[in-house]
Predict the structure.
Amino acid sequence: MNSEFEKNLWINSKVRKLLGLFIVVIGLGYTYYSHLNGCPHYIIFGGWAIGPPIWFIIEYRFLFNAEAEDLHSFKYYQGLCRNLWIGFLVYLAAFYLGSWK
């Protein structure tokens, strides 16, 4: 019984991480494609500004089991993801708003 419980926790954690990675890859692919087809920059920037916080909320609210999983590890993982997201958002802001000639 305990082994099955631990297996489910491991699977839930992996599903969260793989789903998050899949969403990021799709977002990066769309960002690259949108530069080729002329999508307005504010759409791309807005998606990257609003999308990840929504994912963090969904991940915490619906995909994380606070009673069974380690909250410290989850917060550490979300902190790392948040820092990468903010770094990419700053890069996009500099790229879109800067005068790179």
About this structure: Residues 42-101 form one domain. The radius of gyration is 17 Å. The first helix runs from residue 2 to 37.
